[in-house]
């Protein structure tokens, strides 16, 4: 009987196995690893592109945000300027109105004072005319009568009464 060896080296089997192994490695590398590496490279490139676009979008967003904040600051400053101008204009207008009202009040006061003075002169002239006419009447009565002390006192009292009635 022949004993079979469990481990034997058969050169042709070994060469065929090695050739088979190399062929399998070549086929796996060519048809499996190469497409997988290409897919992975495409994914990596796509991811890098997306990261670049995201960075670009972030920097653009930051620029837009900075521009927005600057515009808001400019708008706030402009609003403050407009408000300050409005306050100055209101102050100037109110001061002008106060000056105008003061001028009008002074003019009215001067006119009232001149009217009062004119009325006073008119009243004084009327009183003088009245006194003059009363004096003429009195003189006429004196001439008509002879003056005695009783008549003199009586005439003075009448004169006083006439002056009281006219005023």
Give a description of the structure.
By secondary structure, the chain is an all-alpha fold. It has one domain (23-166). Helices cover 91% and strands 0% of the residues. Helix 1 (11-144) runs antiparallel to helix 2 (149-166).
SS elements, strand count: 0
> Total helix count?
2
Mean pLDDT: 86
The proportion of residues in beta strands is under 5%
Radius of gyration: 64 Å
The main pleated sheet reads as: none
Q: What is the CA-CA span between the terminal residues?
A: 181 Å
Helix fraction bin: over 70%
Low-pLDDT runs of 5+ residues are none
Order of helices and strands: HH
Secondary-structure content class: mainly alpha
The backbone outline, from C-alpha atoms, is rod-shaped
User: In the residues, how many domains can be counted?
Assistant: 1
Main attributes of the structure:
2 helices, single chain
Secondary structure blueprint with pairings:
Layout: H1 11-144, H2 149-166
Summed up, what is this model?
The chain is mainly α and 167 residues long. It is 91% helix and 0% strand.
């Amino acid at each position: 009987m022949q004993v079979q060896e469990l481990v034997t080296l058969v050169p042709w089997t070994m060469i065929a196995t090695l050739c088979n192994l190399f062929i399998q490695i070549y086929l796996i590398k060519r048809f499996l690893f190469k497409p997988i590496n290409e897919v992975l490279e495409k994914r990596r490139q796509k991811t890098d592109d997306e990261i670049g676009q995201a960075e670009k979008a972030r920097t653009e967003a930051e620029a837009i945000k900075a521009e927005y904040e600057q515009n808001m600051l400019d708008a706030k400053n402009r609003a403050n300027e407009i408000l300050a101008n409005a306050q100055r204009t209101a102050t100037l207008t109110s001061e002008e109105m106060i000056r105008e009202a003061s001028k009008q009040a002074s003019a009215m006061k001067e006119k009232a004072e001149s009217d009062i003075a004119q009325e006073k002169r008119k009243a004084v002239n009327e009183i003088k005319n009245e006194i003059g006419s009363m004096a003429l009447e009195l003189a006429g009565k004196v001439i008509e009568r002879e003056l005695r002390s009783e008549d003199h006192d009586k005439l003075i009292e009448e004169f006083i009464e006439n002056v009281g009635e006219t005023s």
